[in-house]
Design goal:
Layout (H helix, E strand, L loop, with lengths): L8 H6 L1 H4 L5 H10 L1 E5 L5 H11 L3 E5 L24 H12 L4 E5 L8 H5 L4 E4 L4 H14 L3 E7 L2 E7 L8 H4 L12 H4 L3 H19 L8 E6 L6 E5 L13 H10 L2 H4 L7 H5 L8 E2 L1 H10 L3 E4 L3 H6 L6 E2 L2 H6 L10 E4 L5 H10 L7 E4 L2 H8 L8
Parallel strand pairs: 1-2, 1-4, 2-3, 4-5, 9-13, 10-11, 10-12, 12-13
Antiparallel strand pairs: 5-6, 6-7, 7-8
Cofactor: Zn(2+)
Keywords: ATP-binding, Cytoplasm, Metal-binding, Multifunctional enzyme, Nucleotide-binding, Nucleotidyltransferase, Transferase, tRNA processing, Ubl conjugation pathway, Zinc
InterPro entries: MOCS3/Uba4, Rhodanese-like_dom, Rhodanese-like_dom_sf, ThiF/MoeB/HesA, ThiF_NAD_FAD-bd, Ubiquitin-activating_enz
Length: 394
């Protein structure tokens, strides 16, 4: 009499193409089924990672994300759709994953990962994936991974570039703090909304995160730590940098009990220099009397005269949309030669959100000559909202 199959019969068909690979086989597929992975962030990196982990047969997948799906996400966050706009990303990703593989267990957590819940949230899983886009959470995840003794598969992507590394893997694997003991100044860290992102880049890095996770589960991974760098426009596109083993002086992984203390006592936002600037709110600030104009005031100036309008966005953004008769002067060019843009005519300066325009206007005013110089509160976003609903938002 034949012994009962170790997998449901349909799984032999579902996973057959990967089970016939040397190094996987039936034992490997069983390992995948018994594995548990938690993905923190169901955005550009998390969506492809979740998709391929589920398709490969990882038995339990946790999804942690408290954000909701927006239209601007759909360019890269491939598990979401027009039908799930407004839904929690974790729930939207879970629905998509269940359509791919209804047999796996999906844990949906629509909460923000914070020091108070990080250890309890991550503890049930074998491997942690960092698919986030903010520095405080990266440090929190690294400290939590060290204190829990779990590998952390970390990815990042911006513009045309991405990177991937596995932290805290094995007894000598470095943690995130080993590479970055101190965070960068918060003003130097931009988001995808500010800097832009090619969606395919997040797909490549997210898929690589899934691949590294699967390799760890199957014991097919390279134990030597490395940092993989990807550039969509580079030649070659991939470069791998060998990393040193964990630092003996690291405040986290050199003493895991200290890392536990970090998780429970550190204010990670303050450690990283405070909350990230809210550029939309800053752009809406009133500023000094007479220095800023509302969109309505700019409209009135256009209707009653011919004001000089300088648009200080980069040329690429100016090419997307612009106000009629406006002149494109990228901020870096204006700051390099502000005297070139002094005029006896009243000058209105615009940008996307109303931040760079303040810098430009102040620089021209410092010269102390010419006509009135004002920048527009809220920038072109406010113009679209308050004056012309047909003006494109991006």
């Amino acid at each position: 009499m034949m012994s009962a199959p170790l997998l449901p019969l349909q799984d032999y068909q579902r996973y057959g193409r990967q089970m016939i690979l040397d190094g996987i086989g039936l034992p490997g597929q069983l390992k995948l089924k018994q594995a548990s992975v938690v993905v923190v962030g169901a955005g550009g990196l998390g969506c492809p990672a979740i998709q391929y982990l589920g398709a490969a047969g990882i038995g339990r997948i946790g999804i942690v994300d408290h954000d909701r799906v927006e239209l601007s996400n759909l360019q890269r966050q491939i598990l979401h759709s027009e039908e799930t706009i407004g839904m929690y990303k974790a729930e939207s990703a879970s629905l998509a994953l269940k359509r791919i593989n209804a047999q796996i267990q999906v844990d949906v957590m629509t909460v923000a990962l914070v020091p108070e819940n990080a250890l309890d949230t991550l503890r049930p899983y074998d491997i942690i994936l960092d698919c986030t886009d903010n520095i405080p959470t990266r440090y929190l995840l690294s400290d939590a991974a060290v204190s829990l003794g779990k590998p952390l598969v970390s990815g990042a992507a911006q513009k045309f570039e991405g990177q991937l590394s596995v932290f805290n893997l094995g007894p000598t694997g470095p943690c995130y703090r080993c590479l970055y003991p101190t965070p960068p100044p918060k003003e130097t860290v931009g988001s995808c909304a500010e800097l832009g992102i090619l969606g395919v880049v997040t797909g490549i890095i997210g898929n690589m995160q899934a691949l590294e996770t699967i390799k760890i589960v199957l014991d097919l991974n390279d134990p030597n730590p490395s940092l993989l760098l990807f550039s969509a426009l580079g030649s070659p596109q991939f470069r791998s940098i060998k990393l040193r083993s964990k630092k003996a002086t690291c405040t986290a992984c050199s003493n895991p009990s200290e890392s536990l203390a970090n998780v429970t006592s550190t204010d990670y936002v303050q450690f990283c220099g405070g909350a990230a600037p809210d550029w939309i709110e800053r752009g809406l600030a009133n500023g000094k009397t007479g220095h800023r104009a509302t969109p309505e005031e700019l409209k009135e100036a256009i209707v009653t005269g011919t004001p000089r309008i300088l648009d200080v966005r980069p040329a690429t953004e100016f090419g997307i949309c612009q106000l009629p008769n406006s002149q494109n002067v990228p901020l870096k060019d204006l700051l390099a030669s502000p005297g070139n843009y002094v005029s006896q005519s009243d000058t209105y300066i615009v940008c996307r959100l109303g931040n760079d325009s303040q810098i430009a206007a102040e620089k021209i005013r410092e010269l102390g000559r010419g006509g009135v110089v004002k920048d527009v509160v809220g920038g072109l976003r406010a113009w679209s909202r308050d004056i012309n609903l047909e003006f494109p938002l991006y």
